[in-house]
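Quick question, first post here. What does this chain look like in 3D?
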Amino acid sequence: MAELPAKPLPVPNADTAPFWEGAARGELRLQRCAACGQAQFPPRALCAHCHAPAPSWEVASGRGWLVSHTRVHRPPSPAFKPDLPYVVALVAMEEGPRIMVNLRGAAAEEPRLGDALRIRFDPPAGPHNIALPYAEAEEEPGQP
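> Answer (accepted):
Ran it through. Tokens below.
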């Protein structure tokens, strides 16, 4: 049997490097505009709301809720075939922006809109030390 190709990993650039540096440490980082106060994701050089330059970076809570999802049964490339089926989720973050990530664990078995989720990160991998984000069910208070 032929070996599967590796999954493609993002390559950080000037706009995204702080996000990936935080991800490698298990931190979800978002940008916030000093001019209008809006938080944004994905990272970019200008505020998506008011176009002010150089939004600052902040560590986000990592908490959000499920606003949409789809279960993938056909892989976008052969590298994703072993993961089938998997759930791609749109998560509305507590800070405002939305992030699209894979949904894992019990939350992926029967996803429900409004489910409380937490963003986590895979261990860093690849030449750029990329830790991919994913979402799982938010633990109840008092749970380990």
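The mean pLDDT is 93.
The chain is about 10% helix and 30% strand.
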